[in-house]
Design brief:
The complex is a heterodimer of chains A (about 325) and B (about 725). In chain A, helix 11 packs antiparallel against helix 12. Chain A has about 325 residues and is of the alpha+beta class. Chain A is about 30% helix and about 20% strand. Among the domains of chain A are: about 50 residues, Uridine Diphospho-n-acetylenolpyruvylglucosamine Reductase, domain 2 (2-Layer Sandwich); about 100 residues, CO dehydrogenase flavoprotein, C-terminal domain (Enolase-like, domain 1). Chain A is globular and about 60 Å long. Chain B is of the alpha+beta class. Chain B folds into three domains: about 130 residues, Aldehyde oxidase/xanthine dehydrogenase, molybdopterin binding domain (Aldehyde Oxidoreductase, domain 4, 2-Layer Sandwich); about 190 residues, Aldehyde oxidase/xanthine dehydrogenase, a/b hammerhead (Aldehyde Oxidoreductase, domain 3, Alpha-Beta Complex), CATH 3.90.1170.50; about 300 residues, Aldehyde Oxidoreductase, domain 4 (2-Layer Sandwich), CATH 3.30.365. In chain B, about 25% of the residues lie in helices and about 25% in strands. Chain B has 18 helices and 24 strands. In chain B, the strands form five sheets. In chain B, strands 3-5-1-12-9-10-11 form a seven-stranded mixed beta sheet. A five-stranded mixed beta sheet of chain B has the order 7-15-14-13-8, sandwiched between helices. Chain B has a five-stranded mixed beta sheet with strand order 16-17-22-23-24, sandwiched between helices. The chains are: A alpha+beta (about 325), B alpha+beta (about 725). At the A-B interface, helix 8 and helix 13 of A face helix 3 and helix 18 of B. Bound molecules: flavin-adenine dinucleotide and iron/sulfur cluster. The site of flavin-adenine dinucleotide has 31 residues of chain A, from strand 2, helix 2, helix 6, helix 7 and strand 8. Chain B: Its EC number is 1.17.1.4. Chain B: This is Xanthine dehydrogenase YagR molybdenum-binding subunit. Chain B: Pfam families: Ald_Xan_dh_C (PF01315), MoCoBD_1 (PF02738), MoCoBD_2 (PF20256). Chain B: Keywords: Molybdenum, Oxidoreductase.
Chain lengths: ~325, ~725
């Protein structure tokens, strides 16, 4: 085992202070991703700052009508929280489609946002991977890439973000509240939180060194009636998405007034389908419009050797998720 | 609670070892506490072919707790293979770390021995190895020209297939593909070896104790009597623990070299590369049939791969020789040596993939002929094994098919593909036949009687193993029945090479062979006790009473069951039929198996509960073949890119159906005196085709390449112009 120091932080301030002391420090949430990666020798922290006990495990209503969901609340507690279920059923449904009960009980919201790709080259230290070892090459680019990106990839990395929860958060236009070691805090719009690989695939997010995730901020309750999370996977549960769709609709007088739509399993970040959203606003919730939106959403897809299936699969899934969302209370 | 209930064979009792297992008291190989034990961890090659040019162990050796690093440079010299590409079996020597040559990605190239497992694992990463890499062959398509005729099985011909095809009203020529699959028993492979002078004692998770002793003797060139192998509980094997794999060699070698007991555990990732696997099989099927459904020809050609240093051919075509009556039959196997590890038997080797091909092709032909696939099979039934002309000892395949059809409501199935819908689900029904040889082999046991407070207790000892199948229970039931001693007073002790020899668990012969061995030992103990007390052999007597009446504290006897000559005149197989109802989601391409009915004709069922467990497990593994199980080879590096359970998907509970298993009441006294056949492998046989046939019935699309993933579903629609 590689030696590391362990700090149990009691407050965000303590956590930030401890983290700033080491260049190779990691926060530890539920550990369901970090510890696995340490066992695989992929992550090699010199210091671990456990944040699971920070006083951030709440769901709070904000003045503006939205809600703040604490970073250390577990995925299970979040999905089953009455305020989340009632106000953001899309988020509940999405979280419950991920992993297993046991893992969701351990996993924290902060850790979920920062879980790393499941690209097998990233996991196998004997193979090249720019994300794990910058400059070593991307094994997947011309290798086994059935699970990889069709949007926003670069020659240096074609990985996808594996989080289900993040897909709903992208559809919901959430933001992430983070704090820096100097005590300052900032709010990052969800779409800017994860990044595309570009030539720095080792960076998954726009977080600055040692920044701590405090919470997820949600806008006023939305898509309470029309929502759906469709996850296509290789078995009925306990598998990451091949592709997934989070869809929310607001409908008035048989017209779509607002749409939240994001696609998972297709890019280095949750893939917000802005053009499809824009297309649907003001239109009638019909199958035909849903299909057109889906076609539009996939227009700029760029496939790799083994992932061509993701285009038709995504198109079908987007149309289906929208139809299911509409049908929930139609 | 004490009862005087004997609880003999045929009763659905709970596992006699169940309490031990659920309370953590059943000790598995890796759980034995051995004094002074150290841990060792294998280092895997990171190229698929080439030579080691340098090894630097300095840094690894300098780590705290590290005791030794073993490489080809300092390893004990072991006996290697005497010829190139030998056909392997259950006792083939397992030499390791003998040369700088690398044959596949993940091969053991070093072993680190340390005081703790963490120290060993860490130091493994510090062993610096350089290679001269050579061009490896791991691509199936590119390797086809390298295919050789395997050492076994021989090509088989009956009649003239070309003639049969020419005479047919309908013909079919299709190829089915099954991917590399891995056994992945829950319990990792493990071994703890301790030398005591010239003798070595090994706790290991092994299905076959005696063969394990032989392998170690062969590998180290030491007498079998100096080796003791102990394996009382095994957390699943599925064939992967038939052979005594190289981690056992490593444990024995490292223990010798360090003078300490050494514990080697194969990690889950190493389970992919350092145990064994089922190879990818491409099976070309050619069928001919007359309008009224008589098969005129059946040809089954299998293309598989083996390693570059050993050969194993999965006999996929065997099932096509015996299952249906056809005058013209041809079965061939070809083998490509690739830079991948050597494959070996995995649950129903041959039948599992072979019956996927045969039973899917039968379904395709039935559809072409416009016949009910059940009637088509019945039309081609035979009570004589066409491959050798011997009558089947019993063959109730037609009954299995008819009874299953009744249970399933087969007459209400969608008669044409893509004709039934439930919301966005397409509904289909599928059927397949199953057959699996029921071998029976020489098997011995010892019975020890002890008088205790006016009661007689019996201990049964054999080197048989319980790989989760229920051996403890059925042997306790057998002893209870043949000794007429209540089962609470029977203790069964298994998995120790000091006990009488059995063939071990494998090939579905365990239940029949072990039980017969115990029966003979029970018969002998009564016979010999009568002799001892001067009673005539024919006199009625109860063994327990006899012991008590004669004031004997203890008495023991051994017995060996041997297949009799009567059996040799017959072909002995278990038969079955599988029925499935599958729902395919037209939007996601995901499918759900809603219902499965299995009817099995497998001789006397010793314990309906454990036998049900075997069939259920087989059905689940068969479902896994269709749902998601596949090991993928990386195209540029030649390693397995599926390297954990996150990538290699086995079915989850939600994937499994409402399952019904029916055993036909049967005792096959030709098979053996107790009427037992095997169930361990029957359950997986044909399952994949019953599901794939249902998917065809649901969607109108044939998937001949397993597994049938959402990806394949959607691409099939793209090809068909639906999307
Ligand atoms: C077998 C398996 C199956 C899974 N299946 C799915 C699935 O289907 N869908 C899915 O979405 N996920 C799945 N997951 C992933 C799982 O959701 C994540 O592992 C989990 O959400 C991570 O949360 P954690 O608290 O355990 O994170 P940790 O492992 O503790 O941390 C992950 C990362 O986040 C960082 N971190 C943690 N908290 C903070 C914080 N407050 N501020 C800054 N950085 C922080 C850590 O430093 C680390 O880099 C699966 C995981 C496993 C093991
Ligand atoms: S896709 Fe990204 S994570 Fe995967 S090998 Fe390439 S660089 Fe590494």
């Amino acid at each position: 085992m590689r030696p590391f120091t362990y700090v149990a932080a009691g407050t965000p301030k303590e956590a930030l202070k401890a983290a700033a002391n080491s260049s190779a420090s990691h926060y530890l949430g539920g550990g369901t991703n970090l510890l696995d990666l340490m066992k695989e020798d992929v992550e090699r922290p010199e210091q671990i700052v456990e944040v699971a006990d920070l006083d951030l495990a709440q769901v709070k209503k904000n003045k503006g009508g939205g809600y703040t969901i604490g970073a250390t609340l577990s995925n299970s507690a979040t999905a089953n929280h009455p305020d989340v279920r009632n106000n953001y059923p899309l988020l509940s449904m999405t979280i419950l489609a991920a992993a297993t009960v046991q893992i969701r009980n351990m996993a924290t919201n902060g850790g979920n946002l920062l879980q790393r790709t499941r690209c097998p080259y990233f996991y196998e230290t004997s193979m090249p991977c720019n994300k794990r070892e910058p400059g070593s090459g991307c094994g997947a680019l011309n290798g086994s890439n059935a699970g990889h990106a069709i949007f926003g990839w670069s020659e240096s990395c074609v990985a996808t973000n594996p989080s289900d929860m993040s897909i709903a958060l992208a559809a919901l236009d959430a933001s992430v509240r983070v704090q820096a070691p100097d005590g300052s805090s900032r709010l990052i719009p969800f779409n800017d939180f994860h990044r595309l690989p570009g030539d720095q695939p080792e960076k998954d997010t726009t977080l600055r060194p040692h920044e701590l995730v405090l919470a997820i901020e949600l806008p006023a309750p939305i898509y309470k009636d029309h929502y759906y999370y469709l996850k296509i996977r290789e078995r009925s549960s306990y598998a990451f998405a091949l592709i997934s769709v989070a869809a929310g609709l607001e409908i008035k007088n048989d017209r779509i007034t607002k749409v939240g739509l994001a696609l998972g399993g297709v890019a280095h970040k949750p893939w917000k389908l802005t053009s499809a959203e824009e297309f649907l606003v003001g239109k009638a919730p019909t199958e035909e419009n849903f299909t057109q939106a889906a076609t539009l959403a996939l227009k700029d897809a760029k496939t790799l050797e083994h992932n061509k299936y993701k285009v038709p699969m995504s198109e079908k899934a987007i149309a289906r998720a929208l139809a299911q969302a509409y049908a929930r209370k139609a | 609670m004490k009862t005087n209930n004997i609880k003999g064979t045929g009763e659905a009792i709970n596992r006699v070892d169940g309490r031990l297992k659920v309370t953590g008291q059943a000790t598995y190989a890796g759980e034995f506490s051995v004094k002074n034990k150290v841990y060792a961890q294998g280092v895997n090659s990171t190229i698929a072919k080439g030579k080691i040019t340098s090894i630097d162990v300095t840094e690894a050796l300098a780590q705290p707790g590290v005791i030794e690093v073993i490489t080809y440079q300092n390893a004990l010299k072991l006996k290697g293979h005497e010829k190139d590409l030998p056909a392997i079996d259950n006792t083939t020597p397992m030499a390791v770390l003998q040369s700088p040559d690398v044959h596949y990605y993940g091969e053991y190239v070093a072993l680190v021995v340390a005081e703790t497992i963490e120290q060993a694992q860490y130091a493994c990463r510090l062993v610096k190895i350089e290679y001269a890499k050579e061009e490896a062959l791991t691509d199936f398509a590119a390797a086809k020209s390298t295919a050789i005729k395997p050492a076994a099985p021989e090509d088989y011909f009956r009649g003239d297939v070309e003639k049969g095809l020419a005479e047919a009203d309908e013909t079919l020529e299709v190829t089915y593909v099954t991917p590399i699959e891995h056994h992945h028993p829950m319990e990792l492979h493990t071994a703890i070896a301790t030398w005591m002078g010239d003798e070595v004692e090994i706790y290991a998770s092994q299905q076959m104790i005696d063969n394990s002793v032989k392998t170690i003797a062969n590998t180290f060139d030491i007498p079998e009597k100096n080796i003791r192998v102990i394996s009382p509980f095994i957390g699943g094997g599925f064939g992967s623990k038939l052979q005594t794999h190289r981690h056992v060699t490593l444990a024995v070698m490292a223990a010798k070299m360090t003078g300490r007991p050494v514990h080697v555990t194969v990690t889950r990732t190493q389970m992919f590369t350092n145990t064994t696997m089922r190879q990818r099989n491409e099976q070309k099927m050619r069928l001919g049939a007359t309008k009224d459904g008589k098969l005129t020809a059946l040809a089954h050609e299998t293309l598989s791969h083996t390693s570059t240093y050993e050969q194993y051919q999965e006999p996929c075509g065997t099932v096509s020789k015996m299952l249906y009556a056809t005058p013209n039959n041809e079965v061939k196997h070809r083998l490509m040596p690739l830079n991948l590890q050597t494959p070996f038997a995995m649950r129903a080797p041959g039948e599992a993939p072979g019956s996927f091909a045969l039973e899917s092709a039968m379904d395709e032909m039935a559809w072409k002929l416009g016949m009910d696939p059940i009637e088509f099979r019945i039309k081609n039934d035979t009570q004589t094994d066409p491959s050798n002309g011997k009558p089947f000892s019993s063959r109730l395949l037609n009954e299995c098919l008819r009874i299953g059809a009744d249970k399933m409501g087969w007459e209400n199935r969608p008669k044409t593909p893509r004709s039934r819908r439930e919301g966005s689900w397409l509904v289909g029904y599928g059927v397949s036949a199953a057959s699996r040889a029921s071998p029976y082999q020489e098997s011995a046991a010892k019975v020890i009687l002890r008088a205790k407070g006016g009661e007689v207790h019996a201990t049964v000892q054999t080197d048989a193993t319980d790989i989760g199948t229920g051996t403890y229970s059925i042997l306790a039931q057998t002893a209870a029945e043949y000794l007429q001693i209540p089962i609470e007073r029977i203790t069964v002790e298994l998995g120790d090479s000091r006990f009488p020899v059995t063939p071990g668990s494998g090939g579905s012969w365990g239940a029949a062979s072990f039980s017969m061995g115990v029966k003979v030992a029970c018969d002998n103990v009564l016979k010999e006790l009568k002799e001892k007390v001067g009673m005539s052999e024919d006199a009625q007597a109860n063994v327990a009473q006899l012991l008590l009446d004669n004031n004997l504290a203890t008495f023991e006897a051994t017995g060996t069951a041997t297949p009799d000559e009567g059996r040799a005149g017959y072909s002995v197989f278990s038969f079955g039929a599988n029925f499935t109802e599958v729902w395919v989601n037209e939007h996601t391409g995901m499918f759900r198996i809603k219902r499965m009915v299995n009817v099995s004709s497998a001789g006397k069922i010793l314990n309906p509960k454990t036998a049900y467990g075997q069939i259920l497990g087989g059905l689940t593994m068969g479902a896994g073949m269709v749902i998601a199980e596949q090991t993928k080879v990386e195209p540029n590096f030649g390693n397995f890119i599926t390297r954990s359970f996150a990538d290699y998907h086995v079915p989850v509970n939600l994937d499994m159906a409402n399952v019904e298993v029916i055993f036909l009441p049967e005792e096959d006294k030709i098979a053996n005196a107790m009427g037992i056949k095997g169930v361990g492998e029957l359950g997986i046989t044909g399952v994949a085709s019953a599901i794939a046939n249902a998917i065809f019935n649901a969607t109108g699309k044939r998937f001949r390449d397993l597994p049938i993933t959402p990806e394949k579903m959607v691409m099939a629609e793209v090809e068909a112009g639906v999307v």
